[in-house]
Amino acid sequence: MIIITILTSIAAVAAGGTLYYKQKKFSNQEKKLKEDIEKAKKIPEGKEIEIASERAKEIIYSAKNKALSIVRDAENKQLEIQKNLSQREEMIDKRSREIDVRAGRIEEKETQVEKLREEAENIKRNLEGKLEEISSLTKEDAKKLLIEQVETELTGEKAKKIRVLEEEIKLQAEEKAKTILINAMEQTVSDYVAPATTYILDLPNDDIKGKIIGKEGRNIRAFEKATGVDLIIDDVPGSITISCFDPYRREIAILAMKKLIEDKRIHPGKIEEMVAKAKEDIAREIKKYGEKIVYESGMSNLNPELVALLGRMKYRYSYGQNLGVHTMEMVRIAANIAESIGANVYLSKKCALFHDIGKVVTAEQEGSHIEIGAEIGRKYGLEDDVINAIFAHHDMAEPSCTESAITKIADIISGSRPGARNNSSEVYAIRIKKLEDTVKSFPEVSEAYAIHAGREVRVIVKPNIVDDNKMVLLSHEIAKKIEKENTYPGYVQITLIRETRATAKAN
């Protein structure tokens, strides 16, 4: 109400001010006209003066009429404003009363809601009390029991999901591993040459045999002494046989003999000269082969002596498998596997390159090629992971890194695939017989047959002793005993067969 009164007063003052200003302006104009008339009266009388006087009266009359009109308009506007303000004041009063009514209703509802809330809390407390009485459990105990039950159910669900996921992951991992290994083997399959301990050298004619033997056999004795090989000259026409278990010495002897035959001057002095030249040629070939291996494997900054040791792999064989070819195949397999699983490719290749470095000097030093290889690695500053791979690829240490484990896998792939290595028939027969005897030592076994070059053993069990459930346990027991008592490359698969036969005779 106070605001409306103030607004009304302001509007009235504004309207009055405007009227006052217009009246004052009109009075000034009227005053000026009167002054002009007085001045005109002082001018000599005449017709022009009368006309001017009449004109002045008309202007004054018109001005008064306009002033009255302005005053009436101002008064009308003032009345209209007052009327509008009165209407608005009434509307505001009406809205204010409505708001007061609504506020009262809201207060009543709030009071009712508060009462209902209190009643709900009382009912809840009463129910909790009754539940505690019925169940003999407090609220905290019931809450704890409920949580335990939920946790138990969730644990069971988690275990089920984990088992399902483990099976899925296992299947996926097996398929992925198979793919990686198959790709590695497919890309690195190579032929192996398994030379015997003898070499048959063709002669241009049989007359040269006499010169090779020499007077009272002095030339042949000098040759054998200088090279460390056995020279066999028999009745077979057009050839001689050079025999030696060491491929390095045998290669020197072959090269020296070829030089002597070409020269045709064969005597002890010439023999020593040609053997020395052959050794120089072989040393250059070893260096060249070592540099080739290092280049193909992508290594760098290796000690020259270490490169020379790698070159000697060209004349080193293990189970008929050339060590240089085997090593380079391992390097490719290890690199392929490492790249497939995201391991360090360079370190994997280096581990594979030096895993059998000890074999090149086993004929000169006592000890296993594992210990010798580790000693060489330490001498020339190879990484600890590389030295660990030397031990781990024959299970003499646990792999310290993924790359070391890759070396072991690559060695199994390269060495155990069919045709890679050539054991003697006698050693092979002994190994197979021992494998079968190990399986037959179980009382539940009726017969055992080693097949696929000893990679699988098919076991026929006694059906009256072994049932289907026991076959699973028996297969694991046989596998453990084979692992403990037998030496073999790769793995051996055990397949158990249980067969029941019934016969009848009809007359």
Can you give a write-up of this model?
This protein has 507 residues and is mainly alpha-helical. It has 15 helices and eight strands. The chain has helices spanning 2-41, 47-135, 139-186, 207-213, 218-227, 247-263, 268-297, 304-311, 323-341, 345-354, 369-379, 384-392, 402-416, 425-440, 468-485, and strands at 198-202, 230-232, 239-243, 317-318, 321-322, 445-451, 456-461, 493-497. Strand 2 and strand 3 form a beta hairpin. Helix 7 crosses helix 8, helix 9 (323-341) crosses helix 13 (402-416) and helix 11 (369-379) runs antiparallel to helix 12. The longest helix is centred in the N-terminal third of the chain and has 89 residues, at 47-135. Mean pLDDT is 78; it is low at 1-8.
The number of strands is 8
Radius of gyration, CA atoms, in whole angstroms: 59 Å
Structure classification: mainly alpha
Q: Please trace the helix and strand order, writing H or E for each element.
A: HHHEHHEEHHHEEHHHHHHEEHE
Oligomer: single chain
Q: Major sheet, described briefly?
A: 3 strands, antiparallel
Strand order in the sheet with the most strands: 1-3-2
Please outline the helices and strands.
Blueprint: H1 2-41, H2 47-135, H3 139-186, E1 198-202, H4 207-213, H5 218-227, E2 230-232, E3 239-243, H6 247-263, H7 268-297, H8 304-311, E4 317-318, E5 321-322, H9 323-341, H10 345-354, H11 369-379, H12 384-392, H13 402-416, H14 425-440, E6 445-451, E7 456-461, H15 468-485, E8 493-497
Parallel strand pairs: 7-8
Antiparallel strand pairs: 1-3, 2-3, 4-5, 6-7
